[in-house]
Amino acid sequence: MNFYDEIKERLSMNAVLERYGFEADRKGFLSCPFHTEKTASMKIYENSFYCFGCGAGGDTVKFTALLFGLTNAQAAARLDNDFGLCIRNEKPDKQKMNEYLKKKAEKEKELERFRSDYLEKCERFKRLRKKLETAEGFERAKIDSELEYLDYYFEATAWR
Ligand SMILES: [Zn+2]
Asked: Do residues 19 and 78 share a domain?
């Protein structure tokens, strides 16, 4: 059985409706979410739906696709996630996995560099502020401009 069919078999229309905040009335009719109407004209069946007002119809996957503007494949994946079914069991592609891990490591390294640079600048900022209390003349102007630069750096590099 393929992924799509298994999703359809595992989930009833009512389960899907309930999950996304809808409830059919006692006769199994629902106010159609796909067109504006006063009386409920969407009939809910065990595993499908059909709207006598606008003609929308299909299975649970189709309903989800229409509701969230997804393709059927995306909708099936979303149902799989939202219901925690874990049906989709794609074998991880080894090459893709390695690329992913490599990128992740690079990102972490970059973040680490950024953090140490940031902390170093924080320390320097504190030291300069202290020095400024007693500095005079040219020394004071130098510290001032460096503090200005650091201020600019902190503002430009909001903590990631
Ligand atoms: Zn309708």
From this structure: yes
Which of 82, 106, 134 terminates a domain? The answer is 82
CA of 70 to the centre of ligand 1 (A): 18
Cα separation, 20 vs 144, whole angstroms: 58
Domain count, the chain: 2
53 CA distance to ligand 1 middle (Å): 5
Per-residue pLDDT band for 91 (boundaries 50, 70, 90) equals: low
pLDDT tens digits for 101-148?
Answer: 899 899 999 888 888 888 898 899 999 999 989 988 999 999 999 999
Domain that holds residue 109: 94-156
